[in-house]
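TASK: fixed-backbone design
INPUT:
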């Protein structure tokens, strides 16, 4: 099978099973030509200046992991608190949701995971100054529960009770004042958007069609909708005032698909999969191209910075490669360490203490192999 046909087939199959998993299609693309700096040549072609990541991150403070804990931060709030899954060393059979204040170094257990199987984990979907939305999911039995944690009064509420999930659940949450918009799988790889009122506790489905990537931008909730019959994607704007929907753009053939949508509160970005050349393009709301790349997964856009997981920049790289861009000043920071988390006010990044090839699989978040680094803008 030709590479082009293979990529097309992969794109279409992912659309049928749900747009969230579509991002994984980028792994089919072969390596790009490397620039002398070791990065892909994408930044040079589009007018981005290349700089060492140390130029931006040199003032980051070092924060060791809590003693006796294995803490995996996966979300960062604007007030400098990291959230993620943790276990106590020697008690690996009991994981829990935890937080760590990056200013005071205070570590807090929030909730033990209900171990319905040995493959039950916790995933943080949304964090803010007053709430945390997270999910406990059982990969073996393929069920999950969503919880709302209110930080001030330390109260826990079940948002969505046990439900069927895929092998790897993917959930996104957007917020407008006291309204939460949760995009989650309702079964058979169908993702819907549910609105929750934090004051009254009421909820309703606002999008029953296959959809994903909800983002509140100005007076609208924007999201991507998939037509599994026509194999097209649409950008939908849902008015927060009158609850009316309008399609503001859509793909009309099998050459382009919207596969991500993100905002920093001031701008809206689209990620477009291009079947013709098997690339992924970041565009602004007016469809002005920012740059293209061969791989882009788990994108985060905050303040003026964009990060995502992409193609390895070196043949010696073993673990996932993360990218860091300053979109305002058009700078591509060449970054070679671990996962990156962004908030509106800062960055949490994982600095490797050894070559990534020397860090055992699943052992990144240990003090002998890495350290958390935090910097506010």
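OUTPUT:
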């Amino acid at each position: 099978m030709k590479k082009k046909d293979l990529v097309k087939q992969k794109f279409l199959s992912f659309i049928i099973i749900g747009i969230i998993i579509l991002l994984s299609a980028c792994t089919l693309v072969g390596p790009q030509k490397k620039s002398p700096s070791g990065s892909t040549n994408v930044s040079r072609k589009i007018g981005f200046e290349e700089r060492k990541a140390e130029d931006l991150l040199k003032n980051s403070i070092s924060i060791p992991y809590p003693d006796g804990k294995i803490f995996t931060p996966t979300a960062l709030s604007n007030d400098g608190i990291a959230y993620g899954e943790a276990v106590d060393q020697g008690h690996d059979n009991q994981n829990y949701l935890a937080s760590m204040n990056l200013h005071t170094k205070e570590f807090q257990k929030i909730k033990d995971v209900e171990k319905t199987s040995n493959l039950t984990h916790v995933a943080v979907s949304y964090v803010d100054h007053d709430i945390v939305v997270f999910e406990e999911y059982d990969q073996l039995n393929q069920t999950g529960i969503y919880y709302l944690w209110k930080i001030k009064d330390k109260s826990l509420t079940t948002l969505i009770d046990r439900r069927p999930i895929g092998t790897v659940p993917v959930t996104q949450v957007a917020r407008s004042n006291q309204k939460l918009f949760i995009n989650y799988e309702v079964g058979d790889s169908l993702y819907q958007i549910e609105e929750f009122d934090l004051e009254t506790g009421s909820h309703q489905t606002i999008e029953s069609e296959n959809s994903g990537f909800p983002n509140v931008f100005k007076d609208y909730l924007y999201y991507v909708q998939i037509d599994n019959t026509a194999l097209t994607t649409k950008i939908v704007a849902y008015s927060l005032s009158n609850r009316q929907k309008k399609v503001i753009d859509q793909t009309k053939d099998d050459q382009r698909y919207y596969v991500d949508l993100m905002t920093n509160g001031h701008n809206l970005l689209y990620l477009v999969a291009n079947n013709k050349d098997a690339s992924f393009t970041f565009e602004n709301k007016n469809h002005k191209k920012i740059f293209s790349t061969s791989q882009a997964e788990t994108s985060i856009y905050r303040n003026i910075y964009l990060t995502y997981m992409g193609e390895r920049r070196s043949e010696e790289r073993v673990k996932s490669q993360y990218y860091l861009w300053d979109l305002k000043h058009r700078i591509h920071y060449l970054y070679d360490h671990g996962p990156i988390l962004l908030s509106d006010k800062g960055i949490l990044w994982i600095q490797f203490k050894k070559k990534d090839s020397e860090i055992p699989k699943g052992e990144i978040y240990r003090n002998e192999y890495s350290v958390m680094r935090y910097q506010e803008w």
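COMMENT: The two ends are 49 Å apart (CA to CA).
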